[in-house]
Design goal:
about 70 residues, 4 helices
């Protein structure tokens, strides 16, 4: 993979990370989940919002893991 491809992938992963953070915050209704972690998502009473938060939290974790591998 060329340097430009890696840089482009890093940029795209960063965009996915920011989108996931915004969506989890929207589903939770606050930003406290960032300090409380995954447990905060289980406290969401509305099952649809909880499912959306879990989906985007998984996306966030995947994007961060890939960004760590790329350096």
């Amino acid at each position: 993979m060329s340097i430009s491809q890696v840089k482009n992938l890093q940029r795209r992963l960063s965009v996915l990370e920011q989108e996931a953070i915004a969506e989890v915050s929207r589903a939770c209704g606050h930003d406290l989940w960032q300090s409380l972690g995954f447990d905060a998502l289980d406290a969401i009473e509305d099952s649809e919002r909880r499912a959306r938060a879990n989906f985007y939290y998984g996306q966030l974790q995947t994007a961060r893991e890939l960004m760590d591998v790329l350096g």
